């Protein structure tokens, strides 16, 4: 089977609706449940009049939990109608006074300005902002819970089921072995289901109501009260002389990522020694996971966390998705400043022959440097992580700058022994769509403590019309240990799209998504 293109054995079930998710389960007695939530992020209940909702047809109960007011009914339609009939008032959440501009300022203030460089030292500075981004999995969060006085049983999609079991047991004051977690198929995740918010809520609702519940978060619930990739600010300075990069300093400021809810134990174990040195879990993970693949003289990377009470989580590629994207944009600018071709600049400085082979392949297959019509350009990005290397070359049409379109993508990857080429190609293609989305158009605004976007209608993730008509993928048959592909492609794809846009428009975009 190794190396043979193989489709998913359950693909037909997925696309025809036969696959079963948490919302499809028929757990005896579990009733449809939804939650009324605060008007601002992490707000709390101030007042409740549920009399009208309780009197509505099909309503089986109304209970309060720390995150809101739960409504139980015979159908989801009845539960949603009753939820809308609740008369509620809310205390504002801890970030109710903040909007995007305030958050960006706090991020920029997290690091001191660069010092004035020594006399006669040449340098390039860059500052970049990346917005919050929702995970937006196709399947909304759903969990079934049956909590009794001495035991609990739950069904939900989970990437960290053991940590979820431990946390839910503690919240219910039950021993861990009294909580049973059934891991159900997930309809998309991208890091979202590392966090088990819906399952914890369902357990609390079931205990308060004294009956099994099937809790559904609506799309609006997860957009406005779920977890997002944190907003980040990047300050980069590279010094150079005699055609060489002498130093490269990258300062990252991020809204604090909630690794403690879902990933804390795993990351604590992996980064214990660094934590002993006084670093947080996030700072330790950042240092362990981030590295510049180029010879750029003396490299320095620093992470500062801004402790805002905003639900955050590990979006696909975690730190690399913004850190390495910013690096790759700076690489293009350094190459331009030194009068060098961007691919040749990377090839001369990448630290291993495998990286050079990947760059050579994508440049040759993508006809790097070919003449393009006005308003169109090529862009390239490279990344190495988790035992793999990848380069993306995209062609982008920005004749209308507010409606840019990636028209072609060529991808070259070296991941050692390829287990399943079909699955690998799907991962690399998905990363391309992620890069197109978060660089050009998809993000979340914060307006006075509230997430502006509430659905796919205003969260502008790439649609079919935004995907390139031509995608070529070249897998280098190098052998050796298999590398990881699930997170590898996002930084390179993001950078390729950003660099193509910059070349096509003659601009240097600094805030992403560009059309926000």
UniProtKB/TrEMBL annotation:
Protein name: Aldehyde oxidase/xanthine dehydrogenase a/b hammerhead domain-containing protein
Organism: Kitasatospora putterlickiae
Domain of life: Bacteria
Coiled-coil stretches: none
InterPro entries attached to this UniProt entry: Ald_Oxase/Xan_DH_a/b, Ald_Oxase/Xan_DH_a/b_sf, AldOxase/xan_DH_MoCoBD1, AldOxase/xan_DH_Mopterin-bd_sf, N-heterocyclic_Hydroxylase
Domain Aldehyde oxidase/xanthine dehydrogenase a/b hammerhead intervals: 16-94
Matches recorded under Pfam families: MoCoBD_1
Gene3D superfamilies, sorted: Aldehyde oxidase/xanthine dehydrogenase, a/b hammerhead, Aldehyde oxidase/xanthine dehydrogenase, molybdopterin binding domain
Organism lineage string: Bacteria, Bacillati, Actinomycetota, Actinomycetes, Kitasatosporales
């Amino acid at each position: 089977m190794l190396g043979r293109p193989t489709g998913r054995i359950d693909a037909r079930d997925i696309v025809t609706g036969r696959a079963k998710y948490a919302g499809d389960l028929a757990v005896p007695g579990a009733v449809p449940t939804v939650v009324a939530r605060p008007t601002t992020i992490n707000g709390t209940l101030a007042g409740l009049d549920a009399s009208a909702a309780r009197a509505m047809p099909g309503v089986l109960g109304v209970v309060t939990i720390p995150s809101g007011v739960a409504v139980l009914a015979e159908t989801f339609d009845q539960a949603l109608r009753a939820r809308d009939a609740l008369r509620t008032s809310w205390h504002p959440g801890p970030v109710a006074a903040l909007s995007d501009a305030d958050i960006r300022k706090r991020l920029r203030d997290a690091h001191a300005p660069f010092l004035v460089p020594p006399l006669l030292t040449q340098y390039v500075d860059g500052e970049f902002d990346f917005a919050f981004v929702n995970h937006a999995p196709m399947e909304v969060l759903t969990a079934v819970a049956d909590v009794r006085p001495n035991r609990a049983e739950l069904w939900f999609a989970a990437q960290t089921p053991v940590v979820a079991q431990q946390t839910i047991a503690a919240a219910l004051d039950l021993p861990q072995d009294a909580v049973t977690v059934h891991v159900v198929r997930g309809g998309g995740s991208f890091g979202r289901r590392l966090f088990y918010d819906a399952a914890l809520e369902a357990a609390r609702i079931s205990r308060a109501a004294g009956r099994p519940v099937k809790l559904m978060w609506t799309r609006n619930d997860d957009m406005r009260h779920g977890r997002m990739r944190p907003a980040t600010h990047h300050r980069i300075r590279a010094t150079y002389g005699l055609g060489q990069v002498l130093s490269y300093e990258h300062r990252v400021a991020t809204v604090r990522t909630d690794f403690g809810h879902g990933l804390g134990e795993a990351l604590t174990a992996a980064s214990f020694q660094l934590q002993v040195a006084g670093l947080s879990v996030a700072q330790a993970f950042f240092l362990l996971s981030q590295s510049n693949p180029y010879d750029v003289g003396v490299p320095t990377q620093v992470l500062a966390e801004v402790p805002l009470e905003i639900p955050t989580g590990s979006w696909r590629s975690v730190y690399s998705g913004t850190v390495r994207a910013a690096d790759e944009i700076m690489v293009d600018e350094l190459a331009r400043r030194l009068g060098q071709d961007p691919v040749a600049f990377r090839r001369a400085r990448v630290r291993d022959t495998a990286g050079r082979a990947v760059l050579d392949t994508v440049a040759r297959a993508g006809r790097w440097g070919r003449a393009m019509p006005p308003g169109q350009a090529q862009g390239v990005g490279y990344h190495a992580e988790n035992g793999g290397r990848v380069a993306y070359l995209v062609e982008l049409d920005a004749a209308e700058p507010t409606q840019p379109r990636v028209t072609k993508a060529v991808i070259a990857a070296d991941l050692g022994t390829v287990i399943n080429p079909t699955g690998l190609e799907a991962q690399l293609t998905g990363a391309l769509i992620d890069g197109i989305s978060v660089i050009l158009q998809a993000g979340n605004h914060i307006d006075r403590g509230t997430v502006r976007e509430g659905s796919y209608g205003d969260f502008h993730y790439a649609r079919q019309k935004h995907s390139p008509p031509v995608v070529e993928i070249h897998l280098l048959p190098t052998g050796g240990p298999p590398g990881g592909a699930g997170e590898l492609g996002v930084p390179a794809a993001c950078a390729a799209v950003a660099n193509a846009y910059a070349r096509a428009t003659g601009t240097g975009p600094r805030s992403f998504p560009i059309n926000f």
